[in-house]
Structure to design on (441 residues):
């Protein structure tokens, strides 16, 4: 069984303002991407009516009329042609509309047109870098960003954007530190640069340096929740779990949020305080029953405890709001399956929504093995195992499929390979028991 227990975070790049990035929980609503008032305050008076067009575009966007929204924005862009800042801001909003339409490629010719007309202007270069980023052309974006940095030695926003890109590369630590040092030399209290620097130091186990940076942040922002949160991160990395929990609790008192809440809960579980962890989550849910991320966390914990009917309640609460959520459908299917209920239809629905997710394919295959076509399940699990060769749970389920399809030799071969590996997995006992049974019979 492959439950999905983690809620990923999504990076949103807003064009062409490189400092404007945000993360949001997948269960929470995004803010409006339209900023008509802001636009109107930053362009000459003769372009004031463009704000009205942006409002119309926003209305169309909210009503799902993306094409109409695009056309209105293109009209607004034409009205401000010749005003670089005005054009760039329209492109920024267009980027969100194209993202919704899954047509990010439409941004490239618009951004390239700006470069032709304003080849040395940083805002035009920034717009092109953003267009490359949303089209996943990161190498081209890096080239543009480095060009901007060379033209503007005191620039911090584009350095930060380059830092965010390079964070994905483990081999770029030296360049990352240089960029961060440049930013902090120009702007010593830059909160994001200080935050990234601290997290890098913790990640690379430079704990003394991390503590010094945290103290710098505390000097600039003494009342900020991020200070105890970073102290919690540092203690967690140093395996001082009780102290880490105390710092996270302090951070949560200052600024409640799901990220810190779930760090607290996970620590409580590790410290054998599972009852307190569940009590904390349920109390927070009482304050806001619409917090779907807490429902997801509770559902997963109850599922781990094999309290499937309770898990089911929380997964259904999410599906009442997000009926097509593949991860929740996946976990609900498993809860049904473990209770002996028919789960194949739900598992198939999750699979159709996310056919490339090895976790979801695994759930679907295992349920199909028991409630559907065994041969089809074997082929599905065989294909899935190729995409997750190091996942012992997925490999075990393939061995199970071989066994249930009468291929004892392949099942034993795979189980023996799993048995020879030191890494433990949640179904280790079941795998060992099946291997012993097959060898002895």
């Amino acid at each position: 069984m492959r439950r999905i227990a983690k809620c990923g975070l999504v990076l949103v790049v807003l064009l062409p303002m490189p400092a404007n990035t945000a993360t949001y929980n997948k269960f929470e609503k995004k803010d409006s991407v339209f900023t008509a008032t802001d636009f109107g305050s930053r362009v000459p008076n003769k372009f004031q009516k463009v704000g009205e067009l942006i409002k119309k575009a926003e209305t169309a966007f909210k009503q799902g009329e993306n094409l109409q929204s695009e056309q209105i924005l293109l009209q607004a862009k034409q009205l401000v042609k010749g005003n670089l800042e005005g054009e760039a801001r329209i492109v920024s909003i267009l980027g969100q509309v194209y993202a919704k339409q899954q047509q990010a490629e439409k941004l490239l010719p618009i951004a390239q047109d700006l470069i032709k007309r304003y080849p040395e202007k940083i805002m035009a270069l920034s717009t092109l870098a953003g267009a490359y980023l949303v089209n996943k052309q990161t190498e081209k974006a890096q080239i543009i960003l480095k060009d901007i940095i060379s033209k503007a030695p005191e620039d911090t926003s584009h350095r930060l954007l380059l830092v965010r890109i390079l964070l994905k590369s483990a081999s770029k630590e030296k360049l990352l530190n240089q960029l961060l040092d440049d930013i902090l030399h120009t702007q010593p209290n830059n909160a994001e640069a200080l935050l990234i620097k601290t997290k890098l130091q913790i990640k690379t186990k430079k704990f003394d340096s991390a503590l010094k940076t945290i103290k710098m942040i505390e000097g600039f922002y003494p009342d900020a929740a991020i200070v105890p949160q970073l102290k919690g991160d540092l203690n967690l990395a140093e395996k001082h779990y009780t102290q880490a929990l105390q710092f996270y609790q302090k951070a949560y008192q200052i600024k409640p949020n799901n990220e810190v809440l779930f760090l607290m809960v996970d620590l409580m579980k590790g410290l054998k305080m599972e009852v307190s962890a569940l009590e904390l989550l349920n109390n927070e849910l009482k304050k806001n029953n619409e917090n779907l991320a807490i429902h997801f966390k509770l559902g997963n914990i109850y599922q781990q405890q094999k309290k499937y009917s309770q898990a089911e309640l929380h997964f259904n609460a999410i599906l009442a709001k997000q009926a097509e959520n593949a991860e929740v459908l996946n976990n609900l299917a498993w809860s049904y399956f473990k209770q002996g209920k028919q789960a194949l239809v739900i598992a198939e629905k999750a699979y159709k929504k996310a056919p490339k997710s090895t976790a979801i394919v695994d759930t679907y295959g295992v349920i199909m093995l028991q409630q559907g076509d065994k041969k089809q399940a074997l082929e599905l699990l065989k294909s899935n195992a190729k995409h997750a060769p190091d996942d012992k749970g997925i490999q075990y389920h393939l061995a199970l499929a071989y066994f249930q399809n009468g291929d004892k030799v392949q099942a034993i071969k795979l189980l023996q390979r799993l048995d020879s590996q030191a890494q433990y997995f949640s179904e280790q006992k079941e795998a060992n028991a099946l291997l012993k049974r097959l060898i002895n019979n």
About this structure: The chain has 24 helices and two strands. The domain at 373-441 is CATH 1.25.40.10 (Serine Threonine Protein Phosphatase 5, Tetratricopeptide repeat). The radius of gyration is 26 Å. Residues 84-101 form the longest helix (18 residues).
